[in-house]
Amino acid sequence: QVQLVESGGGLVQAGGSLKLSCAASGRTFSSYAMGWFRQAPGKEREFVAAISWSGSSTYYADSVKGRFTISRDNAKNTVLLLMGSLKPDDTAVYYCAASAHTGPIVFNKQREMYDYWGQGTQVTVSS
């Protein structure tokens, strides 16, 4: 069992930056791939970024590539999402998720690969 708690959301102007954190409970955190998803009002939840259990592999949605960076610290049971050059289209509730999938990280762009989800944190980017 893994419990996930996101933090770091807030209101930021376009072009600004935010750092989201996801704190995980459970001694098996380091065995899970981790991902970030987001959901804007009236839209489907969409993939943002994923990182392998070791941190050696990452994968990003095209919409955030070059602007967002995912990282993890297995000693602290934490995964981060550094978001830069933010746009109003990045406005959404951001969710952290844990996946037991151990195959190629590209498959972690699919929501069904994830076993545990956090409650989400709101990010609002003003124009």
Task: Please provide a brief summary of the model.
The protein has strands spanning 3-7, 10-13, 18-25, 33-39, 46-51, 58-60, 68-73, 78-83, 92-99, 116-117, 121-126. It has 127 residues and is mainly β.
Question: What can you tell me about this protein's structure?
Answer:
- The protein is mainly β and 127 residues long.
- Helices cover 0% and strands 48% of the residues.
- It is built from no helices and eleven strands.
- It has strands at 3-7, 10-13, 18-25, 33-39, 46-51, 58-60, 68-73, 78-83, 92-99, 116-117, 121-126.
- Strands 2, 4, 5, 6, 9, 10 and 11 form a seven-stranded mixed beta sheet that branches. A four-stranded antiparallel beta sheet has the order 1-3-8-7, with no helix packed on it.
- It is globular.
- The model has no long low-confidence stretch (mean pLDDT 95).
